[in-house]
Amino acid sequence: MRCGASLASSSEVRREGQTFAGGSLLVRYANFVRLPHTVFALPFALLGVVAASYSYPVTWRTLGLVVVAFTAARFVAMGFNRIADRDLDARNPRTRGRELPAGRLTLTQAWTAVIVAAVTFVWAAWALNPLCFTLSPVALAIVMLYSYSKRFTWWSHVWLGFGDAIAGPGGYLAVAGRWSEPGWLLWALAAAVTFWVGGFDVLCALQDEQFDRAERLHSAVVRFGRARSLFVAKAMHGVAVVALVAFGVGLGLGWPYFGAVALGAALIAWEHRLVRPDDLSRLNAAFFTMNGIVSIVVFLGALVDRIAS
């Protein structure tokens, strides 16, 4: 996973953005998987829970298990990615300060944490319902195999997005134990997250254009260049907004949700104005934090709509 703008200068290596200061093992593990990013992606899992709540009861137990399952799955995804990319990260000036290449975590510590997280995810899926348990190995395979996709296809951005996107249907399945009616509803939610995340991963990849070319890695910017990559990112975000609208229509949501989607779309459009092919100076930690706020805004809109209904 590429995001995490570096605070390093050309002559020194400092910790990346969205990380914590400190040297305890807990802090090192939190930074290892960029724990703050969990807060920005979790709302889409909870959006699936909100959707299911229109037809099925939601208990505090189920809600807690959804949070545990999502957090564990994301730890597996990020942790495994860091393990798979440790040699690449060590050669990349932007990422060589990460926990594994910098030696703040050992490979054994990293693998131990990833395995524990994977077991926790499977346990939470088992505790939810048989369907979630059956699908849990598939979910783990999707989020882990992404780590190798950029070695052979620029579609790795979409793969990453889909890995995050399964959280939405996952939240629904955790409550309902079955697919949605109409069936396309969850696919619309998955498409929204896939292209929302994928579009911003294209922007993330702009930071590593020279490195990716040197290492023969695949990304939109390597395939199309900067200007066309920015167009690809905009197109992906356009699809994401359309999918969010379709999801709201299918679920019968009202103005609080659609107002939140409109605000989210405005934030994304404003962010795109900050990045130009010849100027990536504003592609920083604050930029990606603002992107994360979009998911929170959309979720809160759906939640307010559900409470008011």
Shape: globular
Helix and strand pattern: HHHHHHHHHHHHHHH
Number of helices: 15
The averaged pLDDT comes out at 88
Strand fraction: under 5%
Poorly predicted parts: 5-13
* DSSP E strands, number: 0
Cα separation of the termini: 38 Å
Structural class: mainly alpha
Q: Helical amount among residues, as a percent range?
A: over 70%
- Major sheet: size, sense and barrel closure? none
The value of Rg in angstroms is: 19 Å
Using brief descriptors, characterize the structure shown.
globular, mainly alpha
Compact description:
With 309 residues, this protein is mainly alpha-helical. Helices cover 73% and strands 0% of the residues.
Secondary structure elements and pairings:
Elements: H1 25-32, H2 36-53, H3 60-84, H4 86-91, H5 99-102, H6 107-128, H7 130-149, H8 156-165, H9 167-176, H10 184-205, H11 209-215, H12 220-224, H13 226-251, H14 255-273, H15 285-308
What does this protein structure show overall?
The chain is mainly α and 309 residues long. It is 73% helix and 0% strand. It is built from 15 helices and no strands. α9 (167-176) packs antiparallel against α10 (184-205), α10 (184-205) packs antiparallel against α13 (226-251) and α13 packs antiparallel against α14. The longest helix has 26 residues, at 226-251. The chain is globular. The protein starts with 24 loop residues before the first helix and ends with a helix. Residues 5-13 have low confidence and may be disordered.
